[in-house]
Amino acid sequence: MINNLVKTKWSQKKTALNSFLSIPNTFTAEIMSEQGYDALTIDIQHGMIGFNDLFTMLQSIRNSGVTPICRVSGLDHAIISKVMDAGALGIICPMINTRQQAEQLVQDCKYPPDGIRSFGPTRANFSVSSNYFYEANEGTFCLAMIETQEAFNNLDEIASTPGLDGLYIGTADLTIGLNQGKLVPGFDRKEPEMIEAKKKILETAHKHGKVACLHCGTPEYAAEATKWGFDLVTITNDVRLLAGAAGAHVKKFKELTNQDHDESDKDTNPSSY
């Protein structure tokens, strides 16, 4: 049986904790994998990561037991197949706006009879399971990102797609999409209309027996989202964690040595990204 910690958490009605990897480096990936997350998502869409980076990063986090997820760059059969063959146990696909696109995502992620995925698990057959073909459809998962007004309008149609495991809220883009650019993109929105929108996506997912996932900027917001009932919460990424820690140290040093802050001082609060 495929060891997928995230699916185990879901079966136990527990919230899984995830973070994103955007730095194309095996050592930072390995460090992140040893911090206690349930999952780590290698971000091809917005991270500075190519397939060769992803492949070695998957290898570097294997021994930790975290569930390796990949956010692909788009609805692309070839890319989805390749990252799953490399050992990704979950797929997050951006900009899923219609039922047809959600159905195509499922088709790309599943072997027949549930989909059209081509068989060739070059690494997964060794790193995931020697019985991979028979276990992959149940042992992996696919999540559709809800990020636009169109997707929000089509929530029921998307969430009811057979074989789709859940909805993943892309908070920054959803903020832009639902407010036509009037609000600055950010993760931990506290405006009543944004909280209401997130809860509607959550409720729609659960109504159709799907999981609901939320991208957050801080542990405080992620904890609140867990109380709302989200099944997976993401807390920022390796870039923002590094920038935040480094910036905080520099700021503290300047305070302790009575140095004036200059133009190089930047907002390193990850919730603002």
Describe the structure.
- The protein has 273 residues and is an alpha/beta fold.
- The protein has one domain (5-272): TIM Barrel (Alpha-Beta Barrel), CATH 3.20.20.
- Helices cover 45% and strands 15% of the residues.
- The chain contains 13 helices and eight strands.
- It has helices spanning 5-11, 26-33, 51-61, 77-85, 99-109, 124-127, 132-139, 149-153, 155-159, 171-179, 192-207, 219-228, 238-256; strands spanning 16-21, 39-43, 67-71, 90-93, 141-146, 166-169, 211-216, 232-237.
- An eight-stranded parallel β-barrel has the order 1-2-3-4-5-6-7-8, surrounded by nine helices.
- Strand 2, helix 3 (51-61) and strand 3 form a beta-alpha-beta unit.
- Helix 2 (26-33) runs parallel beside helix 3.
Mean pLDDT, all residues: 95
SSE order:
HEHEHEHEHHHEHHEHHEHEH
- Examine the coordinates and then state which fold CATH places here, giving the name of the CATH topology: TIM Barrel
Number of helices: 13
- In total, the number of strands is 8
Corresponding CATH superfamily: Phosphoenolpyruvate-binding domains
CATH class type: Alpha Beta
CATH architecture group name: Alpha-Beta Barrel
Q: Briefly note the structural class of the backbone.
A: alpha/beta
In short:
This protein is an alpha/beta fold.
